[in-house]
Amino acid sequence: AQNHVQRVGESPHGKGYEHKVRQVCLNQVWRDHGLPSLMKIDAEGVDIDVLQGANEVLEQEELEAVIIESW
User: Fold this and answer.
1) Count of CB atoms within 10 A of residue 54's CB?
2) Sorting pLDDT into bands at 50, 70 and 90, what band is 43?
3) How far apart are CA 33 and CA 35, in angstroms?
4) Global pTM exceeds 0.70
5) Which tens digits make up the pLDDT trace of 1-39?
6) Helix, strand, or coil here: 70?
């Protein structure tokens, strides 16, 4: 699924910003571009959603490492 996500917040310098990103399921990225050897996830609280969208990728034995930054 491709969606456009818009986030508004503050930069470290106190100025507001707006950032648009394209949201793509990691399973689709894998099908389009091949399997990565390393996957790093830093999704600011929605890590579970990212993992669910990467279930097919995570089942591949060739994936050497997954790093999840969570707090």
Assistant:
1) 19
2) confident
3) 7
4) no
5) 455 555 556 656 666 666 666 777 888 888 898 888 888
6) coil
SS3 labels along 4-67: EEEEEEECCCCCEEEEEEEECCHHHHHHHHCCCCEEEECCCCCHHHHHHCCHHHHCCCCCCEEE
Mean pLDDT of 43-62: 83
Helical (H) or strand (E) element with 3: strand 3-10
Q: Dig out the tokens for 37 from the structure.
A: 């050897």
State both tokens at 24: 């793509």
- Write out the two tokens for 31: 């099908």
Q: How far apart are CA 46 and CA 67, in angstroms?
A: 15
